């Protein structure tokens, strides 16, 4: 009995492995299956790939893969740097626009302040305009600081990507 099992194992180990694949047409589409087709079909002979494998060829393939990965990473970094450059430019442009808007608004308020009369009502109105000027400066200042902080963060990301 043991000899029979041993003979079967040895026979199985020496036989070549071959998969059965069937090419069938179902609903007008070509389908590949590991079971025979319901109607007609064609049996395809598929054998394992043959070739010479050795550690040297595997090492060369790995080096090629590593080189490709390095090229892809470099290209990806270049794209990220370009996107960050564009975002920084947009933020800087927005800062300039906000600064111009703030200066225009403050100039309007300064002009308005000149018309205040030299009496109690004029002093109250002048104080109100001064408060409005402070609010405008704070509002625009906060927006500008936020954009500058974002620019600094983007520059740090670019530095992390390297050149």
Task: Describe the secondary structure blueprint for this structure.
Elements: H1 2-14, E1 19-26, E2 29-33, E3 42-46, H2 55-113, H3 120-161
Helix pairs in contact: 2-3
Description:
This protein is mainly α. The chain folds into 2 domains: 31 residues, no CATH class; 92 residues.
Poorly predicted regions are: none
Binned strand content: 5-15%
* Broad shape: elongated
Number of helical regions: 3
Helix content: 55-70%
Can you summarize the main beta sheet? 3 strands, antiparallel
Give the helices and strands as they follow along the chain: HEEEHH
Q: Average pLDDT, to the nearest integer?
A: 82
Distance between the termini: 71 Å
Number of domains: 2
Structural class: mainly alpha
Gyration radius (Cα, Å) is 38 Å
Strand elements, count: 3
Q: Enumerate the strands of the largest sheet in spatial order, edge to edge or round the barrel.
A: 2-1-3
Main features:
single chain, 163 residues, mainly alpha, three-stranded antiparallel β-sheet, 70% helix
Compact summary:
The protein has 163 residues and is mainly alpha-helical. It has three helices and three strands. A three-stranded antiparallel β-sheet has the order 2-1-3, with no helix packed on it.
């Amino acid at each position: 009995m043991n000899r029979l099992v041993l003979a079967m194992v040895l026979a199985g180990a020496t036989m070549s492995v071959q998969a059965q694949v069937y090419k069938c047409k179902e609903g007008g589409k070509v389908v590949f299956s590991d079971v025979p087709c319901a109607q007609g079909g064609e049996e395809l002979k598929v054998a394992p790939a043959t070739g010479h494998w050795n550690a040297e060829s595997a090492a060369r393939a790995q080096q090629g893969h590593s080189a490709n990965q390095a090229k892809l990473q470099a290209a990806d970094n270049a794209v990220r740097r370009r996107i960050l450059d564009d975002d920084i430019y947009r933020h800087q442009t927005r800062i300039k626009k906000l600064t111009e808007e703030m200066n225009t608004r403050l100039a309007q308020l300064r002009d308005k302040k000149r018309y205040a009369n030299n009496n109690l009502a004029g002093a109250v109105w002048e104080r109100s305009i001064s408060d409005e000027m402070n609010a405008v400066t704070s509002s625009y200042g906060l927006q500008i600081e936020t954009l500058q902080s974002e620019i600094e963060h983007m520059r740090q990301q670019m530095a992390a990507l390297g050149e």
